[in-house]
Amino acid sequence: MMTLDHLNTASAVDFVALLDGTYEHSPWIAERAAACRPFKTVAALKVALARVVREASVDEQLGLIRAHPELAGKAAVAGELTAESTNEQQKAGLTACTPEEFAKLQQLNADYNARFGFPFILAVRGPRGTGFTRHDIIATFERRLRAHPDVERAECLRQIHRIAEIRLNDKFGVTPALGQQLWDWAAALAVHSEDETFLTCTYATPAHTDVAEQLMAWMRDCGFDEVGRDAVGNVIGVYQGTGDKRLLTGSHYDTVRRAGRFDGRLGIFVPMLAVRELHRAGKRLPFGLEVVGFSEEEGQRYAATFLASSALTGAFEPAWLDQADAAGVTLRDAMRDAGLPGTLDAIAALQRDSARYLGFVEVHIEQGPVLDSLDLPLGIVTSINGSRRYTGEIVGLASHAGTTPMGQRRDAAAGVAELILFAERRAASVPDVVATVGMLEVPSGSINVIPGRCRFSLDLRATTDEARDALDADLRAELDAICERRGLSFTLQPTVAANAAPSDAAWQSRWEAAVTALGLPLHRLPSGAGHDAMKLHELLPQAMLFVRGGNGGISHNPLESVTVDDAELAIVAFQHLIETLHV
């Protein structure tokens, strides 16, 4: 079994030989990475190798991709694969394809090569490390065949890095057992869903209650001293320390519709596993750990977004109890149907006393492409963006598409289109500012009628409230100018206003120390998505750690993914944070 000390002290030639087979027929990667020694951890080695590839020329990257064999291709049939590739394809069952599956893969290989000019690359052992099914492989092949060539080249390289990561684990005898447990918990929890096909778990539904019950059972198994569900459905686990104060941590367990398995839930599992390891070691910290599985963050069933964390900060709105869902069920009745009291007195009692807590930390999947594009497993969150959201409508005049001259039209949709393009330009002109029109509707639209009305949404976000407000003012001014020039009118209804939540400097530095201890480079980035941490920010100092998401960082989607290796690093980083925290 290889050791890191052996690798760090080997000659450059021996270093390359020791890593032979990690990257298919590409010794140049190890040759360039040798200069980066010594490596503090195997994770640091993985990042260094990936960086060599990222900094290589496009021709070198394409050469690396083309060095890989097709899945179930001619080389596999002829027995010409490397030992590593042979082992991986065998484990994925690609040597046991049915005639139909083999024919399908051959056609996909041909179509893919014709479109991109390089072979399809997939780490067939997958994010769990135990392998995709042949059905999964074919489905992924078909999906990626539709990708843009630049996107697909980048994805092939990321898959190659995952292949290399698994091969390095084998060389070093690394088993990410904590990450595997997290991954398995996520898979088991996803069984509880309102939809048989896609994960959906919205507030106070039977599936939602089942998830809470399962989390509580696992918390008890992990060794928490106190486990329960509070008046808004938050799952609370407390692991007592030797001191009176507590560190608050956690994330949400509700989901969007057609969700992924890791959004929110990863941030509950990480501290659960840290507590399990403390309990198994018979260890207590100078402070207690209070892990919260927040019952609602996504705002899917009710517009009372962040109702769970708002209850802890004392910001729960009484009017929320009278909100009705699409079926006419009020929040109060939904709570009671789920076994919760549904009373303001019970909810008000949940407010936390900030004097009893050290702060709030949250681990979360990034929900974006930045870490994935940089081949980095972890990132430090500098701020959670402030946001403003609107629903709006522009009103013009519906008239005949054939008889109304272009200069005499009052086209509502054209007005919104102009606003969208302005929003795109304006947001792109300032770093870390974004603007999105995510919903468009022409009511009763027809192919031969000029749109008389066009409804739209507007989502504005920035790392500071000042940048957000400036964007907001410019867009509203432009909307007014567009409608004045085009002879249109508009309405704009605010729906959400959330202030930015910059990370507390001391807690951010603790996350940075934890990532540095893993031998990983630091990458700081803002969070464009909202999180429970932005509500706890009103009560306690907070800071977040991001974990890389796979498949280009996609989230709020069934393709959302985290590898067991990245999950392991997040858990170890959390352990470092709590075990080096002095109070």
TrEMBL record:
Q: Which residues form the Oxo-4-hydroxy-4-carboxy-5-ureidoimidazoline decarboxylase domain?
A: 8-169
Statement: the UniProt record of this protein carries the keyword Protease = no
UniProt keyword annotation of Ribosomal protein present: no
**Protein's name according to its UniProt entry:** 2-oxo-4-hydroxy-4-carboxy-5-ureidoimidazoline decarboxylase
**Quaternary organization:** Homodimer.
What InterPro entries does this protein map onto? Amidase_Cbmase (IPR010158), Bact_exopeptidase_dim_dom (IPR036264), OHCU_decarboxylase (IPR018020), OHCU_decarboxylase-1 (IPR017580), OHCU_decarboxylase_sf (IPR036778), Peptidase_M20 (IPR002933), Peptidase_M20_dimer (IPR011650)
Which keywords accompany this UniProt record?
Hydrolase, Lyase, Manganese, Metal-binding, Purine metabolism
Enzyme Commission (EC) number = 4.1.1.97
Q: Which GO terms describe its molecular function?
A: 2-oxo-4-hydroxy-4-carboxy-5-ureidoimidazoline decarboxylase activity
Q: What class of enzyme is it?
A: lyase
Kindly list the cofactors needed.
Answer: Mn(2+)
Matches recorded under Pfam families: M20_dimer (PF07687), OHCU_decarbox (PF09349), Peptidase_M20 (PF01546)
What family does the entry list?
Answer: Belongs to the peptidase M20 family.
Q: Where is the Peptidase M20 dimerisation domain?
A: 386-483
